[in-house]
Amino acid sequence: MLLEMMDNKPRASIILSTYNSPLWLEKVLWGYESQSFKDFEIIIADDGSDESTEKFIKDFQKKSKLHIHHVWHEDQGFRKTIILNKAILKSNSEYLIFSDGDCIPRNDFVEEHVNRRKKNHFLSGGYFMLPMNISKKINQEDIKNQRCFDLKWLRKNGLNFSLKNFKHSRNKLLLWLLNTFTSTKATWNGHSASGWKQDILAVNGFDSRMEYGGEDRELGERMMNQGIIPIRIRYYAICVHLDHKRGYIREEAVKKNRAIRKETKEQKKTWTEFGLNLVS
Q1: Helix/strand/coil for 142
Q2: Predicted structure pTM score
Q3: Which of 50, 162, 193, 221 has its CA 20 to 30 A from that of 230?
Q4: Would you list the domain boundaries of the chain?
């Protein structure tokens, strides 16, 4: 019976953070419906959205084959770290992939994370920021047919030239070169990062004191202090980031977060007293 229960577990749990953005969340879920790798569940970590998001999720569940769980708590300001911890405990897989409800995954996003996972490591992905006009324009067909990841289509719809546009390449040699020689450090990025659940539990999850500004990276820093090695996959696991306002940024919170991260680095902390242990 135990083996049968273990066999029924998904190979990956996708944890998506969201807050009052059902239109963007719908596009993201369309992206997960188009994945080449299918054996995963989705846990929506909802940081206090109003009833419109709950209604959207219930309606979407009725017509989708995705296995979606909705984890919610009351809106008391930016408490993303707390709702992410609740989602971690809700997950049913040994491997967790984290992204956001405003990041549409390319159809190989989950496959790349799953295929490149490695014991005693976590994966550090990236994202491609879209301007607002393209974010609004993308529809279900654009996601299903992967046009929104095609550089020609993006340029046709107003995307400016940038070296970052190479993220949309599927040339394996070019992607290997970019991932190998990029100067960007491998960090835990909330829009595209993954790791073993046991490693995340071992450092007690996210630090619930932290608001916006490096709160994701601090988790990765504790994992690295624990001996978990990061691997860059920023040019392999691709998602496009839909534009939005950021009214939750507070300079006071950013300074507090920097102080917590400084302490984590200097003291080589592997554990937070303000993590999963406080989830009720």
Answers
A1: helix
A2: 0.92
A3: 162
A4: 10-278
